[in-house]
Amino acid sequence: MNELVINAENKTVGRLSSLVAKRLLLGDKISIINAEKSIITGDPKSVLRKYKERLQIRTSTAPWKGPLHPRMPDRFLRRIIRGMLPWDTPRGRTAYKRLKVYMGTPKHLKEVPIESLPMIECKTIRKKVYLSEICKEIGWSPLKRE
């Protein structure tokens, strides 16, 4: 069982999530750092509109009944990865427990070697939105923790 640390800075969320989900199912422990700097590709206006519409569906009826959506970037990315795991099976749930996602770099992971994933790097794409921007639009305040 390997323990990996992955830097999510400038990585496409979907490609990162599918790769992480596959590695979790193989038995690896994974820590993702800099979750707020990961990227969702596409036209920024349409991407933001899509996530705002999700919240409007929730708040238009009985908001306490859900569906509840995470607003913090680390929980947002963790929820995306959960969607790629077989959550209904014990194998998927134990794989999900092996995942840790952090905003920024915690002190205990600063000296650990970080695995580079150049095949999912997103440098040349012009139409992109950072995960922190999406979370700010749907109600996350970076100054306070939920």
* Strand percent estimate: 5-15%
Q: Mind telling me the CATH class?
A: Alpha Beta
Q: Kindly, what is the distance between the CA atoms of the first and last residues, rounded to a whole number of angstroms?
A: 32 Å
Q: Can you name the CATH architecture?
A: Alpha-Beta Complex
Unreliable stretches, pLDDT < 50, 5 or more residues?
none
Rg to the nearest angstrom? 16 Å
Order of helices and strands: EHEEHHHEEH
Sheet of most strands: 3 strands, parallel
The number of strands is 5
Q: What is the average of the pLDDT values? A: 88
How many DSSP H or I helices? 5
Oligomer: single chain
The neighbouring-strand order within the major sheet is: 1-2-4
**How many separate structural domains?**
1
Q: Given the C-alpha coordinates, what overall shape results?
A: globular
Structural class label: alpha/beta
